[in-house]
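Example complex used in Figure S2.
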Amino acid sequence: MTQTQNPTGTNPSTEVPRRTPLGVQPLTELQALESESIHIFREVAATFRAPVMLFSGGKDSVVMLHLAAKAFWPAPIPFSLLHVDTGHNFPEVLQYRDEATTFYGASLRVASVQDYIDDGRLRERPDGQRNPLQTVPLLDAITSGKHDAVFGGGRRDEERARAKERVYSMRDEFGQWEPRNQRPELWSLYNGRHLPGEHVRVFPLSNWTELDVWDYIEAEGIALPSIYYAHEREVVERDGMWIALTPVTPARDGDAVERRSVRYRTVGDMSCTAAVLSEATTVADVITEVGLSQLTERGATRADDRMSEAAMEDRKREGYF
Amino acid sequence: MPTTTTAGPTTGPARATGGDTGQRRTLLRLATAGSVDDGKSTLVGRLLFDTNSVLTDTLDHVEQVSRRKGLATADLALLTDGLRAEREQGITIDVAYRYFHTPARKFILADCPGHVQYTRNTVTGSSTADVIVLLVDARKGVVEQTRRHLAVASLLRVPHVVLVVNKIDLVDYAQDVFTRIATDFSVLARSLGVIDSHCIPVSATEGDNVVTRSSRTPWYEGPTVLGYLETVDDTKRAVGADLRFPVQHVIRPQGAPLAPWAASAPAVDADYRGYAGKVESGRVRVGEEVVVLPRGSHARVVAVDTPDGPLQEAVAGQSVTLRLDTDIDVSRGDVLAGTDAPPAPVRELTGTVCWLAERTLTVGARVLVQHGTALTKGIVRSVDGALDLAFDSGGAPHWEPATQLGLNDIGRVRIALATPLPLDSYKEHRATGAFILVDEADGWTLGAGMAGSTAIPTGPVSGPTPTAAKVDGTTPQK
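Predicted assembly (799 residues):
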């Protein structure tokens, strides 16, 4: 890690400007998306009292952190980061989370699901999944931090309920989303006014797709946790998904344990995130693979979205991202 | 580049192409509009399906649901029903955003429901759209809803409108049916002052002329829907306009430690003071003189900063940080404008408002006015008329006397402002002529406003009536 480099990997004192005058050419897709996201970050920072950004070390939140850093350059990011740690996160991702926080000069607060289970405020679910348990610690952290704006890395291409989400998403005191009663969002005039107790979830990556995220990671030379790239692991096939053997997902009787080359498309909780078979060891390989994939990101790897036809919508209504 | 063994956020080697990745794929924003049952969901489903934007697991789901409903083939409309209530009730509640791309372009599609608060949804989807895709049923032709959607597109100055004459299979691919509808539409588009329009005969169910050219409409020589979207001129008009740069945020790290990776930048010292914002229109160059509105003081741009290094010039759409040569007072809410034709700050705005709330807009009402990055208080001085689209009687749109506006009404208002705003005419500057009205008490967005005179010519439509649209569907241009 080189502290003097900026996140693009270029050194502003020596490099030629990346963006040449454009004439009447419109911005490229990535320039337009980056610019829109930076605009959103600046609007929130300028108009809310205590924003906070969710940061897990997953690729969307990494891109979001990178964009936040760019939005306020050369000043530091003017808000802190929050991670709701389920206690079942991949160790590689937690290590990355801490290093990235330092690299970008941000401060991180961790809300721990394990603490809630240990002192009885939450109970382990019969299916062992901890993702749904994140909502209570998240809402508590928002309340105790008096946060009026919470950045999330959600993208509208991820899931059909998210396709309906505004960039600024109003939430009531209970963190609930009411899809029937969303504010119109006009031009780029974002309206974040709200009543005391309410807060706004802000999604700067709303208009990005999985492929855009990877294209941007490549273009900007952003590093990711190693498990996004192909590596060998002991896995078992369950319900059409490749589950890695971990302390929280041990082999069951009769499991055919195999050693396969896999990578992760999403890096949520170990208890519900599956790997995909892959030989992609570089960003370029991943982009090729994502372009050819016949499965959606969540459909391929997220057990929690398979629980019901409206799993994501139901969780969002309860306050989940 | 990061590899399997890289755990930390080590940055890779610099890439010569930076964020450009060598390709010039551009971004086009479009919105759909149409009445219920015109086949809008099917068209959107077809666009997604035929551009391979629908992946197997999503399609499996659609096929399962279609089978359960007793359908022989997958109902593509099901691809776009996102919410539980929508699937249960078979209706679309709110705007949904879809994404697809071709080698040439990435598309952001605002899929607007055809009914239930239609103006509200169409306004929301159209405000950022470069293109509106408007649907009609070939058996019904242009109906009142089409006229309303087109009026909204015209008011919001959407640069391009394409009329999809859907269900052409149900009229036996008849050329004369299409020609009649295309003619009606082009007359209407002209009467509403629509900038550019085009018509395409389509069967969304059968896939004719959506992504693949149909052999069943040999008389049609124009592009398919996707072909149109891929080639429509997206050179942003805004780039050629006068500079408008609303200041979002003053970046002044003084005292605070710099971002660790910014410390080496030569321009950055303890006195750094930059004005962060997005160029909404025009371009800004180093050395150029700008006027700071609403105060009217002048300054010169000494640097256009980005984290990737300084630029000589930034154009509409780019988020950058400007430094000025003098330490004049500039803060959020100010607009930096070119010196050629800066907007005059006004204490009272006149404009057209699409009213989007259940409560009524009345004279004397107190509202917040959000314009660019500025927010000020306003009092509604008068309602000077509501737009009567007069389509039932086949007349021309005209202003009717009105004293208040209700949900989905479009009216002219005068609002007194607590602090002056440098409002542009929406006709010339889509970004800095726009404003929203906000409820001071609960924060709800009440209305979408466009400053200055409306784009819609009112009164009798004058000039010769075009006799027929060309068979390729192109509307005669002025």
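The first helix of chain B runs from residue 40 to 50. Chain B has eight helices and 23 strands.
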